[in-house]
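Lecture 7 notes: from sequence to structure.
We start with the chain below.
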Amino acid sequence: MKTVKIKDDYIKLGQAMKLGGMVSSGVEAKMVIQDGQVKVNGEVTLQRGKKISDGDTVAYDGETIRIEK
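Predicted structure tokens for the same chain:
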């Protein structure tokens, strides 16, 4: 599991996926999120702007990242 460090209290899901190297662009993030391929803390989410904070996990395409402040 890869760790992504954030400076603020939260990061938006699409940005976290880009920062963690899961997708190469915001457009790609938007597409896979809307297709229901992304899980946050084990649950499918369809919100690209969902706030992800310290301790949350994001899973997509066999990869998982953990957010740490």
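Points to note: The chain is about 25% helix and 35% strand. The CA atoms of residues 26 and 64 lie 18 Å apart.
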